[in-house]
Amino acid sequence: MKLAPLRVPLHRRLETLAVMQWWFTFLFIGLSSTLIFTYIFFFTSYYWISLLMLTWIIYDRKTPRRGGRRSDWLRRWRVWVYMKNFFPIELVKTEELDPKRNYLFGYHPHGIMAVGAFVSFGTEATGFSEKFPGMTSYLLTLSGWFNFPVVRDYFMMAGLCDVSKDSVDWLLGQSGPGNAVTIIVGGATESLEAHPHNYAVFLKHRKGFIKKALQHGAYLVPVYSFGETDIFEQVSNPEGSVLRTLQTKLTKWVGFAPPMFHGRGIFNYSVGFLPYRKPISTVVGKPIPVEKSPNPTQEEIDKVHLTYTESLVALFEDHKTNETGLQFKGLGLQFAPLNVPLERRLQTLAVIYFWTSFIFMGVFPSIMGIYLIFTDYYWVTLLAASWVYYDRKTPHQGGRRLSWLGVRSMIQWSYIKDFFPITLVKTADLDPKHNYLLAVHPHGIMSFGAVINFGSEATGFSELFPGITPSLLTLSGWFNIPLVREYLMMGGLCAVSKDSVDWLLGGHAGQGRAAVIVVGGASESLEAHPNNHVVYLHRRKGFVKRAIESGAYLVPCYSFGEAEIFKQMPNPQGSRLRDLQVRLTRLVGFAPPIFHGRGVFNYNFGLLPFRRAISTVIGKPMYVKKITNPSSEQVEKVHQEYMGHLRALFDANKTKYGVAGDQNLNFI
């Protein structure tokens, strides 16, 4: 593996950062904005912000089809110049364009991410306005982008518009002369042909843009981006292969099929998702005069299409070159060996599955539901929303385990357990004739210990505690998301609400129930630093009150190692970072910690957890006398007693699980 040197010029670092920004925008900005506004709507008291944004999108829905809302200031950002220089990208002019006319640029090929099209026609980094004075560039993209909040306005400021009939008609027929409208003719489907040195374009049956040019008398301009298909490597998918067949079916179903590709990494030149530094030369060909025909016949369309095809071939032949990739020398990180047992590979894959589920599980169903609203399958979203509403009480009434499906016993949970490894330590029996409230500490970054021990059977909970049924309680918002809610409930997860705890512990579900609560909540993740044993408990008394009201025994649980599996950026109390995180918490309900772990191919940096042991010790049950309406003094008394039991559990077990004898458990 070729690794990036540590000492490189600053401008190269800035170029890489610019491409990272663009890569994130291209792949995740739509998901991120939707996730944020979905979260604000369902989980905070600021739901009106999401409603306001949705109202704005509906009110402003025609703007992307009427030239957008461009900003030369954004198009001239310095970041686009750094991005241009990364490859580098150049815009090659072969003929003048008359600003008294309108032009329709046919851009080829799409490549994986259409980098050349965006930099050349969505920014001023390559000098479009200087090369073609008097011309205004518009790059047309998928209509769906303009349904995403914030994203739509960002794209329109760059001069991007909706690639629709109405949009093309407006730009070429109603907004005056001097417009250069760029359409990536092959569309996203053409990305499946994006292999290095493979010069294939989808054009034979693409004639809609020809018809538009005829209707408005816009001159056609062939454009070819040499190098567009060389900046990524794609898994081989020839016509007729199983992969291509699957991709074709996906395209018919959801409108696109993402190619399986890779490029370089941030710290290496061999594997990652950033593009390779290969030059891209976008050549703008000679304009093809088109006589206006408001209602062109098929013969007229075919004739112009043939002329366009011949011009594109001539452009390609005149400018094609044999380009070679740049070679770089590197300096290494600590990389994972290639020859490791299959078992360890499966463990890593299982943790990747968990990580992506944890971060993106709620995103994709939400995105898909929103996407379907704008298709003929809108009824699927309406049906799902109706079911969520109809079934809204189930997560607060014990969920829907469906044990026969075996979700809690799926093999990936065992692989995740063995990755660290995770163990469940029993110190006392739990009588099935009683109900229990298990309080788990600390939260850590992702609560691996809680999920594996109580949300699955990987560590043998049911064998260690026969007759006890655990229910891990998590944020109520998860149960507002279609599909996700069913999957979580099948694993025994329920909503962490008063009604849920009352139902589980108050006799409605019978005896032998164990409601599991991660007491510190997501806010406690800000304290998740290695060798830092801090729990949020001083003001967390609601779980104690619930235990008193139901007479459920309190059981302290401590996961040794939970805070060791990631490294978090220092954020001590009073620091600027912590102040910002606290403000974010108050604003949106949570503040994600800034952390890192290991990578898939290295042991130093990435978003996977380190392989550090997690030992979850379940303490001795603490008897709680049932009081239907406990006073504050009674709650405080039991709370103090519980803190004593938790501290004793920590002190009795800390040296067994790698904690120094002089380390203390601190309560906040």
Explain this structure.
Helix 1 (10-43) crosses helix 13, helix 12 crosses helix 15 (411-419) and helix 13 crosses helix 14 (378-390). The chain starts with 9 loop residues before the first helix and ends with a strand. The strands form 5 sheets. A 7-stranded mixed beta sheet has the order 1-9-6-2-5-3-4, sandwiched between helices. It is built from 22 helices and 20 strands. The protein is an alpha/beta fold and 668 residues long. It has 2 domains: 10-237 and 275-319, no CATH class; 345-565 and 615-657, no CATH class.
- Report the major sheet: 7 strands, mixed
Q: Supply Rg.
A: 29 Å
Supply the number of structural domains: 2
Residue runs with pLDDT of under 50 for 5 or more positions: 322-333
Strand order of the biggest β-sheet: 1-9-6-2-5-3-4
How much β-strand is present in the residues?
Answer: 5-15%
Mean pLDDT: 88
Individual helix count:
22
Structural class per helix/strand content?
alpha/beta
Q: How many E strands?
A: 20
Q: Which geometry do the CA atoms define?
A: elongated
Helix content: 25-40%
Q: Cα distance, first to last residue?
A: 46 Å
